[in-house]
Amino acid sequence: MFGAVDRGRILAAMIAELAAPSLQQAAVYAVLNACRASRFAAEDRLGSKLEGGEWFLRRHGPNPVVGAALTAQRHGRHAPFTRTGLVGVIRDARAFVTTVREELLAAQRTG
What we know:
Structural class: mainly alpha
Radius of gyration: 14 Å
Strand content: under 5%
Shape: globular
C-alpha cells in the first residue's frame, strides 16, 4: 500500500512532463495528458487520459483540439493529427499544452 503523495510533487512531475512534449510524435498524448493534469490541479483527482479529456470538455465546453485528441485515443486513429493542416494542429496542440502548463505553475505557486 502506498501513502499519500504530496500534491506539490505531483504538480511538479506533471509540469515537467508538459515542458517539452514532442507534439509531432505524440500530439494526442500531450493534449490528453494536459487535460489530465488540469483536472488534478482543479480537483486533486488523478485519472486516465480519456477521463481527463472528457472532464476538460465538461468543464470548459467544446474544444476542437481536445475533441480531436479524444477521437484519436478512443479509435486508435491519429487522422486528426496527420492530415493536411498538420502544422496548424501541432501549433494548436502546443498552445493548448502551454496554457495548461501555465495553469499548473500557478497552482503550484498557490499550494
